[in-house]
């Protein structure tokens, strides 16, 4: 097992030229490859710089790059304009669309006893290790998995084998992993590289992915003193050490520990990136450990037009709403449609404040009736944007008409916690 590149610090700012040179250096160390598949994230991780790295890899491999498979998970396919926006001049003919319901192959199962141990006895199903069949059947001598390591609500820290086993995974594997994380407890997982969901994926990697030539390219991205995005690190390798080095840096860069809880948070969802509450609820996930009991979260969501990226999941969210853990667990027990889609059930748990703070959504398209029907409060986007102008606010504490608010311009780039809650 090899670590081909490990570079970065909390003050590093890698330029595009440096990223390209470092990637080429690592690819040189790999040796010649004739059939290459790249697995980058989709537009929901546009800030990862994976688009640039994919373009550089295309430049390096040329015709030996056979296909690019964005790790959609349950997300919608990327549009031509999104592909161009993220990947530049990489030919659209190289891109393949992952369908989590139909395009997968099961490589093996993590035993039910292992799941029982990891879930502290709460769950006892086996977990299928599923990947897109192109990865298995394409005859590739390199699968280059590209993405950003950043705090994540389901698996603690995003990327590494999640990009393959969840990003190109199947319905059952995605459902059961998400539900494991929700039942174990989001606040016990976020920001932690080692946790039950990761242990399940690591088991699957060790037992079922060893014959697939996967190399991971991990970025760590944060904001500099001027508030601009900066690449703080680049880590390239084929084993867990690469991931852990990136995760350690991400905790330094992306985790903001506060000395007091936030009474009112205002989170802005960039419309090109966030078009559903399925994605937009990062505003809830990433701030919940920082919000005070009785506090308020206001979500400015100009691009949000639906609840689920997938029509079936959208229907489940509309039917059951964000009612909290106990209500969702009861619905899973009583309702076959929700029991058959455990990732939706996990999402409903994750999207509830459990009554601890209020959540006010200000969507671009969804109506007041729709928003309130799933358990959120509603406020008019234009009115709230006029009061809390995201173009004028700075990340962190601001004073607006004498009121203190905590502003976050992109919840996908970090994790916020009140020290007393995180340490408890």
- Which strand order do you get reading across the main beta sheet? 1-10-9-6-2-3
Tell me which CATH architecture of the largest domain applies here: 3-Layer(aba) Sandwich
Q: Residue ranges: pLDDT <50 for 5 or more in a row?
A: none
For the sheet with most strands, the description reads:
6 strands, mixed
- CATH-derived topology of the largest domain: Rossmann fold
Mean pLDDT over the residues: 94
Count of helix runs: 19
Principal-axes shape call:
globular
Name the structural class.
Answer: alpha/beta
Assign a percent range to the helix content: 25-40%
Could you name the CATH homologous superfamily of the largest domain? LarA, N-terminal domain
- Beta-strand level of the residues, as a percent range? 15-25%
In short:
The chain has 424 residues and is of the alpha/beta class.
Structure description:
The protein is built from 19 helices and 18 strands. The chain is α/β, with parallel strands linked by helices and 424 residues long. It has a 6-stranded mixed β-sheet, with helices on both faces. It has a 6-stranded mixed β-sheet with strand order 15-14-13-12-17-16. Strands 4-5 form a two-stranded antiparallel sheet. A hairpin with a 3-residue loop joins β7 (151-152) and β8. The radius of gyration is 21 Å and the shape is globular. The two termini are 37 Å apart.
């Amino acid at each position: 097992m090899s670590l081909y590149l490990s570079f970065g610090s909390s003050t590093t700012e890698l330029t595009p030229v440096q990223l390209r040179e470092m990637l080429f250096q690592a690819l040189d160390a790999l040796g010649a490859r004739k059939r290459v598949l790249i697995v980058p994230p989709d537009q929901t991780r546009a800030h990862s710089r994976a688009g640039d790295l994919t373009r550089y890899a295309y430049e390096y491999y040329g015709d030996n790059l056979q296909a690019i498979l964005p790790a959609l998970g349950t997300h919608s396919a990327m549009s031509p304009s999104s592909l161009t926006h993220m990947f530049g001049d990489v030919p659209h003919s190289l891109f393949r669309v992952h369908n989590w319901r139909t395009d997968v192959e099961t490589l093996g199962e993590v035993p039910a006893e292992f799941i029982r141990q990891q879930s502290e006895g709460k769950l006892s199903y086996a977990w299928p290790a599923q990947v897109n069949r192109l990865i298995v059947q394409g005859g590739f001598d390199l699968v280059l998995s590209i993405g950003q390591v950043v705090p994540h609500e389901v698996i603690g820290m995003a990327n590494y084998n999640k990009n393959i086993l969840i990003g190109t995974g199947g319905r059952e594997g995605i459902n059961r992993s998400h539900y494991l994380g929700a039942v174990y407890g989001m606040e016990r997982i976020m920001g932690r590289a080692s946790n039950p969901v990761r242990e399940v994926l690591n088991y699957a990697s060790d037992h079922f992915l060893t014959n697939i030539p996967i190399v991971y390219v991990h970025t760590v991205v944060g904001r500099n003193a001027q508030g601009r995005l900066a690449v703080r690190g680049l880590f390239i390798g084929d084993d867990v050490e690469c991931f852990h080095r990136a995760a350690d840096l991400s905790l330094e860069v992306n985790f903001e520990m506060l000395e007091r809880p936030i009474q009112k948070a205002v989170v802005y969802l960039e419309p090109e990136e966030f078009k559903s509450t399925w994605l937009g609820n990062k505003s809830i996930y990433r701030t919940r450990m920082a919000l005070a009991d009785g506090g308020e979260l206001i979500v400015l969501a100009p691009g949000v037009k639906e609840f689920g990226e997938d029509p079936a999941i959208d229907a489940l969210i509309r039917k059951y709403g964000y009612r909290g853990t106990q209500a969702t667990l009861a619905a899973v027990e009583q309702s076959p449609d929700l029991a058959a889609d455990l990732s939706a059930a996990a999402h409903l748990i994750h999207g509830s404040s459990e009554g601890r703070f209020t959540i006010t959504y200000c969507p671009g398209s969804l109506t007041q009736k729709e928003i309130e029907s799933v358990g959120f409060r509603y406020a008019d986007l234009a009115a709230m944007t006029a009061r809390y102008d995201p173009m004028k606010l700075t990340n962190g504490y601001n004073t607006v008409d004498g009121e203190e608010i905590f502003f976050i311009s992109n919840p996908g780039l970090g994790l916020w916690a009140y020290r007393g809650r995180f340490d408890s």
